[in-house]
Amino acid sequence: MNLPVLKSIEEIPRVWKKAYLLLCLWFAANYGVGTFIEWKLENPNTYIFWNALYLFEVLCILIIGIFFYANWLFRFRIYFQVAGHAAGAMIHFMIMGTLSYYLEDYVEGYIGWDFWKAHIIGLLKWEGLHFHDQYIITVGVYYVIGYFQGLQKQEQEKSELALKNREMQISLLKSQINPHFLFNTLNSINTLIGSSKEQARKVITQLSDIFRYALDSHGDQMVKLIHELDFIDNYIRIQQVRFGDRLKFVKQVDFSCLNVEIPPMILQPLVENSVKYGIAPKEDGGTIILTVKRFNNMIFFEVKDDGLGSKAKKVMDGSSSGVGMKNTDQRLKSIFGPGSGLRIHSNEWGYSVSFFIPYEEIVEELKSKAM
């Protein structure tokens, strides 16, 4: 056997090879049992075993052809497939019927059109219907395998889509730190170097911690709330170097929630928007309040400020929010369902952004990771 043929055989999916072998075994058992019963009850001649063997060998070859034929038909519409398989069943019957005529009548001297026609018509009775069954069973096996392969392909496509989605989220996550924040921080460090080198070193350390946290974060992994809060603290301290007393930050966190796991950097865009659109444009600054509380089986998160609110040039109303806000909203919905999306409220006294996380799902997540 030459190399191209061997390569073609190797490329055939294993499931099709197994299906072919099982079909051959099934029909071998059928021929064996049927022939034995015929030999025992009707025809005690041993040649009927040889006839059965010849029919079985041809059937095994035809099964391969049926698979390829069904695979070719599968690309067309269903009505064309039905018509094609009806024709295929007739051709299969004629091939097997003609071989049966040759083995049973032709070798005995019954030669001619009339004898062949009489034999074929005789096979149309009950005892010849197994030829149709052979075709139907083979095609049925093909479609069953094709159905499950289709489901498997859909799952694979979903997995690939989820992987691409996670890669996109990771990319967005790592680019979520606003370039303006980095630019302003570097300017602040440059200013502090001349006035307070110790303070400059602290800011550099905090900035380093922020970027290390961002680079170590992955969209498909969870982090403890306490680590997310440390990240937010570093972010706020750096912003306070720039804004001074104009920026105040208050945390109201339920201590029982500190070990709860949440998506990384899920709070940073909310705090950043409060700083950028609420506090920074306000002449006398303001206060940002971060609240985390547990209500039964839900955990409530809120970032609220007393900045410009609806008076701001750009209001976070869910449609005009930045990339970071949209990314946060999509991540929450993707992980916890549509009910966990951002809820944004704005008025003349400030604005707030909140969301809920189902606590039961987090518990199940932790249990599955522990197993």
Automatic annotation (TrEMBL):
Keyword DNA damage included in the entry's annotation: no
GO terms assigned for molecular function: protein histidine kinase activity
Pfam families the record matches: His_kinase
Keywords carried by this UniProt record: Kinase, Membrane, Transferase, Transmembrane, Transmembrane helix
Enzyme class: transferase
Transmembrane regions: 20-41, 47-70, 82-103, 134-151
Residue ranges constituting the Signal transduction histidine kinase internal region domain according to the UniProt record: 168-247
The enzyme's E.C. designation: 2.7.13.3
Keyword Membrane assigned: yes
Name recorded for this polypeptide: Sensor histidine kinase
Top-level taxonomy: Bacteria, Pseudomonadati, Bacteroidota, Cytophagia, Cytophagales
